[in-house]
Design goal:
alpha+beta, three-stranded antiparallel β-sheet, two-stranded antiparallel sheet, globular
Length: 195
């Protein structure tokens, strides 16, 4: 006599490295409890020498409370290239902005593709920012202090028609937090304490 083994349906919940079951559960939870969507991310920065400064990132506020699950802090050094009187102690702040934009768009592409059942094989990008540094250096008031233009070029490959991949990228662009901040601006309040 043969034994009958219980049958259990196996679903593919990991796509592009994203646990889609957890992704959809998170989205459903936020839809029913919008207060859980309030986050506060933080960076602490301290000057070291010249253009060299260091940021640390660890705890943040999320889903109704402080999140202290990170066991170690992220450390990011910044500086300037020699041509801007630095010593290359790290990427300059403008380059970190380009990195943040590229990284956020990439993550958004991966998440959107996973949610839409598109298996990706590669996502690569080049992001460039055009800047006339005379404004930032105080040499001329006409050029703006920051980037005049940013261009992002993506190469996306996966198991989907070209049209579907382009649709994924467009949806990701619409949902990218950093893209939104860069293209629409965000109020920044600066407070100063002196000793």
């Amino acid at each position: 006599m043969s034994a009958t083994l219980p049958f259990r349906a196996v679903t593919d919940t990991i796509r592009n490295g994203v646990d889609t079951e957890k992704l959809f559960a998170t989205l459903d939870l936020i839809k029913t409890q919008p207060e859980l969507a309030k986050f506060q991310f933080r960076v602490s920065n301290r000057w070291i020498d010249g253009s060299h400064n260091r940021s640390t990132i660890k705890d943040f506020y999320a889903a109704g409370g402080e999140d202290t699950t990170r066991s170690e802090e992220f450390v990011i050094d910044a500086g300037e290239p020699a041509i801007l009187v630095g010593t290359d102690t790290g990427a300059n702040p403008a380059e970190y902005l380009l990195h943040a934009l590229a990284a956020c768009l990439t993550t958004s592409i991966v998440y959107v593709a996973a949610a839409r059942k598109v298996k990706l094989t590669s996502v690569e990008s080049t992001v460039t920012g055009e800047m006339d540094v005379r404004g930032a250096l105080g040499v001329d008031d006409e050029p703006r202090n920051g980037f005049e233009r940013i261009d992002a070029s993506f190469r996306v490959t996966g198991c989907a028609p070209e049209e579907k991949l382009r649709e994924v990228v467009e949806r990701a662009r619409k949902r990218s937090a950093v893209y939104d901040m860069v293209t629409h601006g965000v109020p920044v309040a600066v407070e100063v304490t002196t000793d």
